[in-house]
Structures are given as structure tokens and as C-alpha cells.
Design a protein that fits this description.
With 116 residues, the chain is an alpha+beta fold. It is 28% helix and 35% strand. The chain has one domain: Trna Endonuclease, Chain: A, domain 1. Strands 1-2-3-4-5 form a 5-stranded mixed β-sheet. Strand 2 and strand 3 form a beta hairpin.
């Protein structure tokens, strides 16, 4: 997550004026894919959509993204629980990890994250 934050911070401010969550989600998807990890975005389940899911050989990571001012990293983790985004993976033997990520349009980077 620290590397991700540094990468976002290194994108020139005039490259985009998009302050939407989807911009950050798209860049996240590209980075993770280029790092050789399989990532799915907008993963639908019975009560909503997780912003991203990464499955490795031993861990499944479920990500929820929020824009500062429209939500917090804490609210992102709560949404993962409230919407049951981990339930489809509950029978899997891999470790389940929730990641709440908060992006700042003012800083144009990942400002906070919580991992549970």
C-alpha cells in the first residue's frame, strides 16, 4: 500500500483532473495487473459490489475504495462487512483480508488505508 501511495503521488497533477473514485480504481487495476497479480474489479455479490478482489495462492484480498469527503477507510471496512463481500470466499481455505482505502482528491493519492 505504501508503494501504491507513492505511485499515485508521482503522477503529475496536470495529467488528469479526474477526482472520481473510478480513476483511482482504474490505476489500481493497471498497477496490480502489471505486477503480475490477477485482480477483478466491481466484483458483484448478493448485496453489492466490492471495488477489487485479488486472489493469491494463500490469501484473498477484498478492497473497498472511498474518496475523502465521501467516506473513510473505516467506512470502507464497515461496508465490506455490511455488504458481506467476504461471504462468497468463506468456504475457501485461504486467509481473508479486508482492505479499506481512502483516496484524497486534494492530495491526488492514497491518503489512508486500514487492513483487517
Amino acid at each position: 500500500m505504501s508503494l501504491l501511495r507513492a505511485f499515485y503521488a508521482g503522477i503529475a497533477y496536470d495529467m488528469t483532473d479526474n477526482k472520481d473514485e473510478r480513476y483511482y480504481q482504474f490505476v489500481f487495476y493497471l498497477l496490480v495487473t502489471l505486477m503480475g497479480q490477477f485482480v477483478r474489479t466491481e466484483v458483484r455479490s448478493v448485496r453489492g459490489r466490492a471495488d477489487a478482489v485479488i486472489q493469491t495462492t494463500d490469501t484473498i484480498y477484498v478492497f473497498e475504495f472511498k474518496m475523502a469527503g465521501n467516506g473513510t477507510a473505516e467506512e470502507a471496512l464497515k461496508q465490506i462487512d455490511d455488504k458481506g463481500y467476504l461471504i462468497p470466499y468463506s468456504a475457501d481455505s485461504r486467509r481473508l483480508v479486508k482492505v479499506g482505502a481512502e483516496f484524497s482528491s486534494a492530495e491526488r493519492t492514497l491518503s489512508r488505508w486500514l487492513i483487517a
